From TrEMBL:
Domain Isochorismatase-like: 4-167
Keyword Transmembrane appears in the UniProt entry: no
Protein name: nicotinamidase
InterPro entries, per database record: Isochorismatase-like_dom (IPR000868), Isochorismatase-like_sf (IPR036380), Isochorismatase_Nicotinamidase (IPR052347)
GO MF terms held by the record: hydrolase activity
Key word Translocase present: no
SUPFAM superfamilies cross-referenced by the UniProt entry: Isochorismatase-like hydrolases
Organism (species): Lactococcus muris
Amino acid sequence: MKKLLVLIDFQNDFIDGSLGTAEAQTIVPRVVEKLNTYKESERLATQDTHFEDYLTTQEGKNLPVLHCQKGTKGWEIRKEAQVGFKRVFEKNIFGSIQLAEYIRDERVEQVELIGICTDICVISNAMLIKSFAPEVKIIVDASCCAGVTPESHGAALETMKSCQIHIINE
């Protein structure tokens, strides 16, 4: 079975930087452990990527907190999680169309998603993958995800369940 693990936006700014949370800090060891259960050739990652003009974008106007500016420490994937990836997808929106197309084009049978934020980028990528590759089994490991708040994390998990995305380790 062709399967992949996708690490979503596991970047310093979302863990203990400008948009960090206690929940994100808590999942670091579990994320590293999960990454090590997959081979490098089975691991993909996304990186939220913004530039100096971020605050003038629609997202920046709605979330006026500069974060994940390319080339900064906050933009980097958390050091412990830098275990080697087959490919990293930089994105300046919540979901990566390129990631969804890649999963479809590579004829992946199962994809597991972990990372941050459950209620923004994890759910956006899960829904894009579901749209581009509807026959791929999508799994989200809830114990390796963190949302903006515990409540929004839970709501995102429930929404994904409604869309036939498999949630494990709640």
